[in-house]
Fold this sequence. Notes:
- By secondary structure, the protein is α+β, with helices and mostly antiparallel strands.
- The protein folds into two domains: 14-277, Beta Barrel (Cathepsin D, subunit A, domain 1), CATH 2.40.70.10; 283-455, Cathepsin D, subunit A, domain 1, CATH 2.40.70.
- The protein has helices spanning 14-24, 57-87, 165-168, 247-250, 252-255, 347-360, 402-405, 429-432, and strands at 35-42, 98-100, 106-112, 117-124, 131-133, 157-158, 174-177, 181-188, 193-206, 212-227, 236-239, 258-262, 272-277, 288-291, 302-303, 305-310, 313-316, 334-336, 343-346, 377-379, 389-393, 396-400, 406-410, 413-416, 418-421, 426-427, 435-440, 445-450.
- The model is unreliable at 2-33, 86-102 and 324-329 (pLDDT under 50).
- GO terms for molecular function: aspartic-type endopeptidase activity.
- Residues 1-31 form the signal peptide.
- It is found in: Secreted.
- It comes from Coffea canephora (Robusta coffee).
Amino acid sequence: MARNCPVPFSSFSKLSLLVFINLILYPFTEGQTSGFSTHLIHRDSPKSPLYNPSDSNFERLHEAFHRSFARAQYFNKRISHSRSKLLSHFSSDSIQSNITSVTGDYLIKVSIGTPAVDVLAIADTGSDLTWTQCRPCIQCFKQDAPLFDPSKSTTYEQVLSCHAPLCRLDPGITVCYPGNICGYGVAYGDKSFSDGDVATDTFTFESSSGGNISIANVAFGCGHQNGGTFEETSSGIVGLSRGALSIIRQLNASIAGKFSYCLVPRDSNFSSKIHFGTNAVVSGPGVVSTTLYKKAGDTYYYLDLVGFSVGNTTIPYQGFTKLDNSSPDDEGNVVLDSGTTLTFVPRQMYQPFESEIIDLTKGTRVPDPTGADLRVCYNKDNNLQIPKIVAVFLDADLILPPNNTFAEVSDGVVCLTIVPSDDTPILGNQLQINFLIGYDLVNGTVSFLPTDCTKNH
């Protein structure tokens, strides 16, 4: 069980640890497949336990906007923290909890242990470690589902030694407690937190094509001290970042470094899908691909955005910080994130972008009714004509339909969902709706295919 006063680790070879992780992962069972798909549930969907039928679709969207601003601030803190941690070369002062965001928009169902216990968790491309609340619980937030009891799982294995490879894989998350106990600690930007034991167990995913997919020896956090602003209907986090302890990296050998997702519109009665391995390949007419960049010291997914074109005018990027943690020559200036609704671009670039949209849009401008400080809003009527908007990446042009850049925020009013920021640039999930988006970590690419995600199975 987790205890206070973490003890620093000695230096280690991360390469050898990654090889070890790939060796201990068993292949998929129940069907022996190298690819599978499962459901992603938007927190505001009628399929979500967080859904409140008394709230209007507009009220839910307004809340999502406010969560976006909070999440963007957390990203900035996390990147600054990662940079500081890298510069300290993992000194004793750097062994501390990661700062991340708990405000992801999508939920995923996973079952843990043998016999399997269902867990509904936030699926987050911005988080590393997967964790859930566990018995015995020193401090836990209230959750509707029963707590996971590791003593009742025949496949649960606690990582007992601080010298175990799993315990040394990510010193920003894992800590060594007195008594040589391997633990973890994560702190979130809203002062939520989770602390507990590092362990392995069997994870079972419900396949969207029927049946279950079980994966042995998945490393996760068994949280005995958890608190903050977590919802009662969720039990923890499923980390989908490129961090060493994320689900994506742990399954790397089995899924060949590939995953993809297809996000349905917010008001859809269908679930979004996430695909792994052979199911995640994005190909065919209409696909555009761009380079995926990695930053030393942090685990987000970076793209190089050259700018936007509006009509026939290209607005070049301005004011981007390269956000690198090692070299000013590194590429990658914007984070691709599934948990943020809005898209954030540097203020210096936003100004000419906004001016060009206003000049070319035919319609009646109105004030923002959301209170989220959206700058460009129009009456939604038959006279409204929005210009063609394209996201221009270093090696690809992505045409963005009006529904990806504008959203109806109140009855008869649409607003631009790309906003200015002084912090981390982020491509949010509103911009990603109805694209099949494939991540290939082996070849270092992200691919986009325009898709009706309600029909993506």
